Amino acid sequence: MYFTDRGIEELEKRRGEEEVSLAWLAEQLRTFVDLNPDFEVPVERLATWLARLDDEDDEDE
Predict the structure, then answer these.
(1) Which is an annotated Pfam family here (predicted)?
(2) Is the distance from CB of 56 to CB of 49 less than 8 angstroms?
(3) Residue 19 to residue 3: CA distance in whole angstroms
């Protein structure tokens, strides 16, 4: 188990039944990066990965 799994599990446990928009998620990610600029690159990578999940052309990257 990766250390991050604990955070993911907590998120699922606490908020797993909620429905949110991607616009809401994007705003939360922006706020997180504003408060934690050291995490800008990982958040950008996560956002890009999520945005391209269905893009078959990017699977090789």
Answers:
(1) DUF6104
(2) no
(3) 25
